Amino acid sequence: MTGDSFEFEAEPAQIRLVRSWARARLSAGDVPDEVAEDVVLITGELATNAVRHAAGPLRAVLICGDAAVWVGVEDAGGSAWFDPVVPEAAPAGTGLTLVAACSDRRGHFHRGDGGKTVWAEIPLVS
């Protein structure tokens, strides 16, 4: 299992850098192209939501395991997690329904420092 993280500012212009970082990390490993595309999409959506609704600085985390890729975005606080399991309850324009469609598991946890991590797990094999 390998992992890496990337710290970024809570600014919209940073989302492209986060996606590029994720793409570069995944291309260096044994992640199939179609899975890597989903992981980059999810990383961008989680980062976008953090930029819109949370406090910075932010950190994207990728962990590649034997069966799945785990991606998370850490923030220093902000709005509560929206559960994309019920898409009709999603606020307009949310990308979390895409996260739900492309991942097997997803969720969030609050950290002891007042921040939270929103995460998703994408299987390497469908």
Automatic annotation (TrEMBL):
SUPFAM superfamilies: ATPase domain of HSP90 chaperone/DNA topoisomerase II/histidine kinase
Domain of life: Bacteria
Listed GO MF terms: ATP binding; protein histidine kinase activity; protein serine/threonine kinase activity
Domain annotation Histidine kinase/HSP90-like ATPase: ranges: 8-120
Alphabetized Pfam families for the sequence: HATPase_c_2
Enzyme class: transferase
EC number: 2.7.13.3
Keyword annotations from UniProtKB, A to Z: ATP-binding, Kinase, Nucleotide-binding, Serine/threonine-protein kinase, Transferase
InterPro entries the UniProt entry points to: Anti-sigma-factor_SerPK, HATPase_C_sf, HATPase_dom
PANTHER family attached to this UniProt entry: ANTI-SIGMA-F FACTOR RSBW (PTHR35526:SF3), ANTI-SIGMA-F FACTOR RSBW-RELATED (PTHR35526)
Protein name: ATP-binding protein
